[in-house]
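Good morning,

Attaching, inline, the C-alpha cells for the sequence recovery test we're adding to the shared suite. The designed sequence is right after.
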C-alpha cells in the first residue's frame, strides 16, 4: 500500500497548513552498490540505517553525522515506493490546478536518471518503471475517472550552458523564459505535444530522450552535464465547477553535482563544467535566500534553471527533492555534499500565504 502522503498530517487531518514544516519534501535515495564498488570495498557502505527517516552518515575524514529527511529510501526501495511517497500527491494536485515539481539531485552515477526514467524508458518492466512514466499513467487514470474535460500537453527541454534546447524540436536551441499573468513562468515557444494516453506519452518521451542523445553526440557532451526537464501541462474542467483548472508538473533530472576538479576536465570542458556548476550554485543560492529570511532578494534570475523553478521553490506549488547518493565509502565526500544540499532545502519554510489550500 502507498506510504502516507508527505503533504498530509499523520492524523489524516485535511489541514495542510500545519502539516508540513518545509515547503519542499526532501527525500534521500541510496542506490545499491555497483559491482565495481562491491569489488573495491566489499559490502561496506557509508551509512548506518536508523529508521525510514534517518541514518548515521560515516565519513572516515569527518565525525559521524545523523541526517533526517522526510523519507529515506535504502538500497532495497522499489521504484513504486519512491513514486508513492513523492509523486502521488503532486499528480492529484496538478489535476486540481496546483503546480508540482520533482527534482533529482546528486553526483553523476548516483541514480538520478534511474529514478526518473528507470533503466530505459521504453523497455522496462513494471517494477523498474521510473517516476516519469508512473506520473503519466496516474495522470490519465485520474483524469479518466473524473467528470469533465481535460487536455494534457508534454514539453521536454534540456538546459545546457544556460541555453534552453527543445528536445521535441532540436531546431529550437535557444528558448527564452517568459512570465505572464495567466501562465506564470513559462518557456516561450517550446513545443507542446497533446498526449491522449500513456503510450502516446511514452512514444513522445522516448523521442525526446533520443533527440537528447543526438544533440549530445553533435555537441560532444555527456548527458550528465545538462539538466533535463519533463513538463506536463494539465487543463482540467470539471462539470461541477465551470472554472478550468491549469496545473503543471515539472520533473527535473539535474546535471551531476560533483565537483569540477574530480572530473579531470580541462579547457572547454572545464569551462562547461564551471557554467553547469554555476546553475547548480544558483540553485543553492536561491535555496539559501529562501531559508535565511532574505525572501525579498531571492536571486531566481541568476540562471535559467532557477528562473524556471521559481514558481516551484517560491511557494505557490508543491515541490519534492530526491537526493540521490552512492552508498559507497569511496563517494562519501560527494554524498555528504548532496545530503547537506538536501538539509538546506528542507529549511525552506512555507509562508502561510504561499501554501495552496
Ligand atoms: P545518474 O543519473 O545520477 O548519473 P544513473 O541513474 O545513470 O545515475 O545510475 C547509475 C547506474 O546505477 C546505472 O547503471 C543505473 O542503472 C544504476 N542504478 C541507479 N539507481 C539504481 C537502483 N535504485 N537500483 C538499481 N540500479 C540502479
Amino acid at each position: 500500500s502507498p506510504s502516507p502522503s508527505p503533504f498530509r498530517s499523520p492524523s489524516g487531518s485535511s489541514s495542510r497548513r500545519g502539516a508540513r514544516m518545509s515547503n519542499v519534501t526532501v527525500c534521500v535515495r541510496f542506490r545499491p552498490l555497483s559491482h565495481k564498488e562491491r569489488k573495491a570495498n566489499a559490502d561496506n557502505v557509508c551509512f548506518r540505517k536508523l529508521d525510514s527517516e534517518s541514518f548515521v552518515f560515516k565519513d572516515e575524514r569527518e565525525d559521524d553525522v545523523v541526517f533526517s529527511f522526510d523519507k529515506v529510501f535504502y538500497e532495497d526501495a522499489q521504484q513504486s515506493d519512491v513514486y508513492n511517497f513523492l509523486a502521488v500527491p503532486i499528480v492529484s494536485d496538478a489535476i486540481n490546478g496546483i503546480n508540482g515539481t520533482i527534482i533529482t539531485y546528486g553526483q553523476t552515477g548516483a541514480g538520478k536518471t534511474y529514478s526518473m526514467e528507470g533503466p530505459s524508458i521504453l523497455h522496462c518492466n513494471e517494477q523498474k518503471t521510473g517516476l516519469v512514466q508512473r506520473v503519466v499513467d496516474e495522470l490519465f487514470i485520474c483524469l479518466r475517472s473524473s467528470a469533465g474535460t481535460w487536455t494534457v500537453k508534454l514539453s521536454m527541454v534540456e538546459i545546457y550552458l544556460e541555453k534552453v534546447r527543445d528536445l521535441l524540436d532540436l531546431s529550437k536551441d535557444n528558448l527564452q523564459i517568459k512570465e505572464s499573468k495567466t501562465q506564470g513562468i513559462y518557456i516561450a515557444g517550446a513545443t507542446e505535444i497533446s498526449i491522449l494516453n500513456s503510450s502516446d506519452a511514452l512514444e513522445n518521451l522516448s523521442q525526446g530522450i533520443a533527440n537528447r542523445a543526438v544533440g549530445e553526440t553533435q555537441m560532444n557532451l555527456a548527458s550528465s552535464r545538462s539538466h533535463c526537464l519533463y513538463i506536463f501541462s494539465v487543463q482540467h474542467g470539471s462539470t461541477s465547477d465551470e472554472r478550468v483548472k491549469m496545473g503543471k508538473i515539472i520533473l527535473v533530472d539535474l546535471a551531476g553535482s560533483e565537483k569540477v576538479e574530480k572530473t579531470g576536465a580541462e579547457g572547454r570542458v572545464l569551462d562547461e563544467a564551471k557554467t553547469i556548476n554555476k546553475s547548480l550554485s544558483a540553485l543553492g543560492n536561491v535555496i539559501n535566500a529562501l531559508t535565511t529570511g532574505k525572501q525579498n532578494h531571492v536571486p531566481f534570475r541568476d540562471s535559467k534553471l532557477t528562473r524556471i523553478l521559481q514558481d516551484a521553490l517560491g511557494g505557490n506549488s508543491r515541490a519534492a527533492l530526491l537526493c540521490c547518493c552512492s552508498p559507497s565509502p569511496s563517494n562519501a565526500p560527494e554524498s555528504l555534499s548532496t545530503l547537506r544540499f538536501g538539509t538546506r532545502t528542507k529549511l525552506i519554510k512555507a509562508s502561510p500565504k504561499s501554501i495552496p489550500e
